[in-house]
Inverse folding.
């Protein structure tokens, strides 16, 4: 187990290194420099700024400096907002993003799984048809469409919830719904097909042949196994909630990291883009690791194969 | 015992007992086609997609408008409106409609064609009203209270005489007075082009990469798959965002960005297929007969792996449409005046308060298209590989 | 012997599929007597497994029992309510399935899978149930039983897994054990061990066993009485010695011809039965075996033969008093 963990952490470090390198050189491949895009600076000011940010050094030296700073968890300063560090930008947006993201994950699990179970247990009857229809809607409609349409209906038209911000607790409804809508549907579909497959398994017949009560058969023998594939998608779910938050935070004007990221893109704030990308990547890899560990804990078969591998 | 005719005990000749030879089994292709055609949502989706492609690529030729032509005088006209009839006292009547959000009055004809913006008298900014004259009839636009209303000379409110579809701009116009229908069609053109081309690029990269990894196997395979693993750790949207920042917005760059990123699934599937097929006897047979690796790969392996590849391909198209619109929505996609479903949605969001109907068309278009591709993908999967169900 | 453990009468089961109704079992009747091993033999698709799964109402999706009764301890299993039936399953009637790889839940320890069965049917504490599980593991000869309770199915070999299945089936001292192809998925050497174990346990615990198999060798070695099924019908039924010594149905004869006999030194060729089993979605009106039967007569295609005989029964028109005599086929005692 410890060996597995160490191997995974090593793998994570390699991946992160690859991402840092990729983003660094991508950002340096942008034509011109970070200060070129807008106002023309006097040459001496530009030179001073370049010196200040170490941009006059050769690229490989800049790269090494950057790696060094990343290793000490410092994502550097913003180019667009003097005196603001990327770390503080992220710290400012984190609570908002974390809260909506967490609520969305909870919604995905708390709504998607039960809906899938209801559908599977009522296969080809109206609850199944209904859930699958709604789930197909949810998978097909892009999150920003859900966001804008619900914003218009419930905030502008009906006035049930505020149109922006999270000062009111009702402000969470629409962003969380838009963020999680796709994944609720996805998880419902996945749970359904996975449970249907599990119900076909021989060991389910064994459980019934042992005289176990229907509840025991379903919850002890059926659900646990059919939820394994659902656990595996939780990693990607978190990843996609993160990217989904770009648009959702934009539409609902939430002061989160996603909005900050989009703002940095429009501002061409290259260090911020780099910093936030790397931060996202790190968060994601931690999440995927947690999900994998959860999976190992849930499925005894994995332990053996990984330990021997 | 019941009576049994004596001849019933005759032994049957062998041919009488031999069962008729079974009818020839349908080929895989026939069977798949039959299953696909039996799947109603999938068939409807195919019809929808074909209609959409035709409309997107041929439709604009039949329109008098272009996607870039602006007419600020005719901005934000809705696709349907309530008409008022005003008579000028000399027997002539004028039909008008009131745009309740920007307080403009437009003249329309009986069929619902928009004839133009009417110039009124001086706006009274204190009273929030504006007079309009038709011959010797004067009508006052009163927008001191919302919704705005039209008042006759005696101060009574004029009631609308009916409503009409907009026959000039079927879907209305946007905030710069461009025809929404034509922009929709151009948007569909761009979204579909990006999706198809990017999917094709992904397809070639994925098949190439996965094919090589699966065919060579061993160490090469291990390294190549480790790379794929690293790539797939990060949400692909992030890569696309980074690439778009580097390339700068534009049609070509979004195709390159999406096309270069989403091949990972395809590579995995192709590799998996190749690995499982490689162990089969007919490949060994081809190899012993001296077929070259390239020939084995293209003539034997790929045709057999085609089912899952087609399914993955169909599922890639909606993701590509989605990513493109997502990028355009956050301002990293195509640049104005070019339109795509994403940028149209994002433009509509800007005017959501005043003109919510402008959101309807791009939102409906992309949702329906995503639907169609999803249903088609499901249908193809069921048809081509019943085991994957 | 008048008393019976299980008495099945006129059982019919169909599966409703997109291509129509598949009549898997078409009016099967038989008795299981105390302490006997009843063998059910037939090709795959003959309805032997479906018969037993119908008795326990454990059919897979689409399967429906159309008619019949199955009396066990004075109750009709087919009309009993689900709760009362589940009180019997795993308690008075144990079941062993064909594939021990898939019949055990992969994510639950084998110990727990035994213990939950005991706790379901017996008033026992967890510790008592655990003690009983160890006892059962020793009974089915799983070495170091106490530590193996904590293992998962994938940590066992196929034969050991089947022993676990047997332990589960025997957990509550059942009156009747249904063994559905218990050795088919195992290596030949392991097959022998499991069969010997089953036979031994059956004698020690004085159970009745229904042994489903397609392997006549297994039947010859283990069973007391045999039912031969074909096309969802009983074709022949006899005590095991009679069946092998004097087979009375052309199908049984064909089956025996397809089994190698090592003691036979005449070097006769194995003769497979030509053709394939009937399509049960559209069963022929006459004898289902007629299209493959070397002795088929006009009568065979027209009407389904009844079972002729009493202790040794055979469903073939050749046993009809007016029928011509065929060499090589044994008569059933009228």
């Amino acid at each position: 187990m410890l060996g597995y963990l160490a191997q995974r952490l090593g793998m994570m470090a390699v991946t992160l290194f690859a991402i840092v390198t990729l983003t660094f050189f991508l950002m340096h491949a942008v034509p011109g420099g970070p200060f070129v895009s807008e106002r023309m600076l006097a040459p001496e000011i530009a030179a001073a700024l370049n010196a200040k940010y170490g941009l006059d050094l050769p690229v490989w030296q800049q790269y090494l400096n950057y790696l060094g700073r990343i290793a000490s968890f410092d994502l550097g300063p913003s180019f667009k907002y003097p005196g603001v560090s990327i770390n503080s930008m992220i710290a400012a947006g984190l609570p908002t993003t974390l809260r909506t993201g967490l609520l969305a994950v909870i919604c995905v699990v708390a709504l998607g799984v039960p809906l899938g179970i209801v559908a599977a247990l009522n296969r080809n009857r109206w609850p199944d048809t209904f859930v699958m229809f709604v789930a197909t809607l949810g998978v097909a409609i892009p999150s920003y469409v859900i966001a804008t349409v619900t914003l218009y209906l419930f905030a502008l038209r009906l006035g049930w919830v505020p149109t922006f911000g999270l000062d009111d607790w009702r402000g969470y409804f629409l962003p969380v719904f838009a963020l999680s809508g796709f994944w609720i549907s996805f998880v419902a579909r996945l749970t359904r097909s996975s449970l249907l497959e599990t119900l076909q398994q021989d060991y389910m017949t064994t459980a019934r042949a042992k005289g176990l009560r229907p509840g025991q058969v379903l919850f002890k023998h059926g659900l646990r196994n059919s939820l394994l594939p659902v656990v595996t998608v939780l990693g990607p779910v978190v990843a996609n909630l993160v990217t989904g938050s770009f648009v959702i935070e934009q539409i609902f004007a939430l002061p989160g990291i996603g909005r900050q990221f989009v703002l940095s893109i429009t501002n061409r704030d290259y260090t911020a883009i780099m910093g936030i990308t790397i931060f996202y990547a790190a968060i994601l890899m931690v999440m995927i690791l947690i999900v994998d560990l959860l999976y190992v804990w849930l499925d005894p078969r994995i332990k053996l194969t990984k330990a021997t591998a | 015992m019941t009576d049994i005719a004596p001849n019933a005990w005759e032994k049957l000749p062998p041919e009488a007992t031999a069962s008729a030879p079974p009818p020839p089994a349908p080929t895989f292709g026939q069977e798949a086609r039959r299953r696909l055609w039996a799947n109603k949502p999938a068939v409807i989706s195919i019809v929808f997609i074909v209609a959409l492609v035709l409309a997107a690529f041929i439709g604009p030729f039949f329109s008098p408008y272009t996607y870039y032509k602006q007419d600020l005088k005719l901005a934000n006209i809705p696709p349907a409106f309530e008409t008022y009839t005003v008579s000028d006292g000399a027997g002539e009547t004028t039909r008008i409609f009131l745009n309740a959000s920007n307080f403009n009055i437009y003249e329309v004809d009986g069929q619902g064609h928009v004839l133009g913006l009417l110039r009124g008298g001086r706006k009274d900014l204190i009273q929030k009203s504006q007079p309009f004259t038709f011959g010797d009839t004067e009508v006052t636009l009163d927008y001191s209270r919302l919704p705005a209303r039209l008042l006759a000379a005696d101060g009574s409110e004029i009631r609308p005489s009916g409503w009409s579809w907009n026959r000039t701009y079927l879907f209305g116009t946007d905030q710069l007075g461009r025809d929404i229908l034509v922009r929709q069609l151009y948007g569909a053109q761009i979204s579909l082009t990006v999706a198809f081309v990017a999917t094709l690029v992904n397809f070639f990269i994925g098949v190439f990469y996965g094919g090589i990894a699966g065919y060579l196997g061993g160490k090469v395979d291990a390294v190549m798959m480790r790379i794929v693993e690293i790539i797939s750790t990060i949400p692909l949207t992030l890569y696309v965002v980074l690439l778009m920042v580097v390339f700068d917005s534009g049609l070509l760059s979004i195709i390159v960005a999406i096309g270069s990123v989403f091949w990972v699934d395809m590579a995995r599937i192709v590799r998996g297929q190749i690995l499982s097929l490689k162990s089969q006897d007919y490949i060994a047979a081809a190899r012993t007969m001296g077929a070259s690796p390239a020939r084995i790969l293209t003539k034997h392996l790929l045709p057999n792996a085609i089912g899952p590849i087609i399914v993955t391909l169909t599922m890639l198209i909606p993701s590509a449409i989605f990513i493109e619109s997502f990028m355009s929505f956050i301002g990293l996609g195509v640049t104005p005046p070019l339109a795509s479903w994403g940028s149209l949605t994002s433009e509509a969001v800007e005017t959501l308060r005043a003109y919510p109907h402008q959101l309807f068309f791009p939102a409906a278009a992309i949702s329906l298209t995503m639907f169609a591709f999803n249903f088609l993908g499901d249908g193809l999967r069921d048809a081509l590989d019943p085991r994957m169900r | 012997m008048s008393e019976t453990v299980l008495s099945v009468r006129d059982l019919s089961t169909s599966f409703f599929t997109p291509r129509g109704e598949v009549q898997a079992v078409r009016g099967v009747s038989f008795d299981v007597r105390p302490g006997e091993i009843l063998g059910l033999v037939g090709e795959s698709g003959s309805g032997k497994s479906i018969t037993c799964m119908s008795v326990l109402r454990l059919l897979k999706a689409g399967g429906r029992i159309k008619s019949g009764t199955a009396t066990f301890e004075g109750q009709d299993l087919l009309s009993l309510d689900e709760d009362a039936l589940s009180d019997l399953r795993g308690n008075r009637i144990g079941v062993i399935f064909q594939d021990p790889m898939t019949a055990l839940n992969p994510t639950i320890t084998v110990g727990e899978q035994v213990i939950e069965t005991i706790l379901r049917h017996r008033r026992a504490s967890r510790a008592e149930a655990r003690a009983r599980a160890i006892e059962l593991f020793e009974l089915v000869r799983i070495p170091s039983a106490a530590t193996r309770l904590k293992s998962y199915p994938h940590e066992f070999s196929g034969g050991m897994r089947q022993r676990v299945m047997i332990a589960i089936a025997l957990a509550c001292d059942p009156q009747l054990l249904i063994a559905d192809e218990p050795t088919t998925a195992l290596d030949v050497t392991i097959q022998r061990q499991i069969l010997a174990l089953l036979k031994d346990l059956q004698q020690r615990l004085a159970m009745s066993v229904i042994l489903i198999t397609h392997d006549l060798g297994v039947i010859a070695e283990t069973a007391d009485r045999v039912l031969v099924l074909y096309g969802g019908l009983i074709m022949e039924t006899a005590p095991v010695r009679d069946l092998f010594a004097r087979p009375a149905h052309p199908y049984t004869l064909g089956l025996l011809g397809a089994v190698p006999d090592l003691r036979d030194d005449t070097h006769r060729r194995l003769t497979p039965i030509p053709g394939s089993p009937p399509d049960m979605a559209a069963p022929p009106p006459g004898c289902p075996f007629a299209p493959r039967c070397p002795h088929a007569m006009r009568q065979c295609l027209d009407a389904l033969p009844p079972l002729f005989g009493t202790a040794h029964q055979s469903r073939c028109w050749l046993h009809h008093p007016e029928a011509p005599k065929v060499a090589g086929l044994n008569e059933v005692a009228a």
In short: Chain C touches chain B through 18 residues (CB under 8 Å). Residues 233-319 of chain C form one domain. Chain C has a mean pLDDT of 86. The first strand of chain C starts at residue 6 and ends at 17.
